[in-house]
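User: For my dataset I need records formatted as: sequence, then structure tokens, nothing else. Please produce one.
Assistant:
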Amino acid sequence: MTERSENGLILQGIGGFYYVEAAEGVYECRARGSLRKLGVTPMAGDRVRITVQDDGKGVLEEVLPRKNSLIRPPVANVDVLVMIISVTDPEPSLPVIDRMLAVAEHKGIEPLLVFNKTDLRSSEALEALYRRAGFYVLSVRAIEPQTLEPLKALLRGKICAFAGNSGVGKSSVINVLDPTLCLEVGETSKKLGRGRHTTRSACLYPQEGGGYLADTPGFSSLDAQRLEHIDKDELAECFREFVPFLGDCRFTSCSHTVEKGCAVRAAVEDGTIAVSRHESYMALYAEAKEWKEWENR
């Protein structure tokens, strides 16, 4: 029996099998037991080393160093986190948006906000809010494919994870970007006011011209609570519009929540920083503080 070693990229992991794109094709692989002993769980987006056997099957030998990874959506080595946000049905949640943005910033992933269903309601106020905070935003209508051309150009050549609350139109947008995928689309549940989950696991789809699109499981506002933990002392730097003011507070240990002489709070009061963004920071800070106290028990 002859074997050969190749490097590749995990496109999807499901049921204990990993589908790895390498130079000569896509291989179905089982992970070496030693990875489990090391506490390594391979995920979509991982660069890996595999051994290809005579029968065309593979063994996943090693997960190469990651530049980043997310728990939810479960994907590694992401260049851009594309947050699909519906302006209605379901209603946008600013705390959930801000939580996802903070996680992206913490992980060193460039976030891109895409407001969908703008044929039903204007996204101007939301666009203004997040442009003011320093983010790149787009307005699209998945039912009108031409509105997604700017998004397609921005994503070329990158590993792009798509995320957002269930029912916002992730799969619809991806189907327009790559019509060959024909991803299942779920309707919004009228009873619960949120979408049905149509994506079961993270999966990378290779694109013409280079790059990958990653459709990922949807999540509810409750699921968002289980996103990656950010230490309270690192949180302010995950709100990019706070950064210019962080060195100007009266106290070096300022939490930017209640202290007098806080430059961030002053920027909120004079309208430079949006009130909603600071409220999201305050909520995340309170959670981070509780987490730290629990961790130290």
